[in-house]
Amino acid sequence: VQLVESGGGLVQPGESLRLSCVASGITFSRHDMSWVRKPPGKEVEWVAGITSLPSLFRTASYADSVKGRFTISRDNAKNTVYLQMNSLKPEDTALYYCTTGYWGQGTQVTVS
Question: Distance between CA 39 and CA 92 in Å, rounded?
Fold first, then answer.
């Protein structure tokens, strides 16, 4: 199983980033997916999740700290889950991981 995140970078407050995570070695369409993050010096925190249900029934959920600013989505044809991050704040600075029980290597997001 491999999860490869990308799309992180250094941005200014108020700007946007789109993270991607490509999965291999799993039947992606059958897995709920989540994004979590580890801010410097802090514990890992859950950010957003999306179910594996068909799109008509699929649901997404968000941590209160990102609700209204972040959007999680998935493209099962591409085995990819995304995290669109708008109105970024310095407190969003963290190493971001996608996960479904397995973890990728993460992608760094720095807002400064």
Answer: 8
Is residue 56 helix, strand or coil?
Answer: coil
List of residues 6+ apart from 76 with CB closer than 8 A: 28, 29
36-58 pLDDT per residue, tens: 999 999 999 999 999 998 888 88
Q: Pairing state of beta strands 17-24 and 2-6?
A: antiparallel
Cα gap 11→48, rounded to integer Å? 21
Task: Look at residues 71, 65, 3 and name the one whose alpha carbon lies nearest to residue 31.
Answer: 3
10-25 pLDDT, tens digit per residue, is: 999 999 999 999 999 9
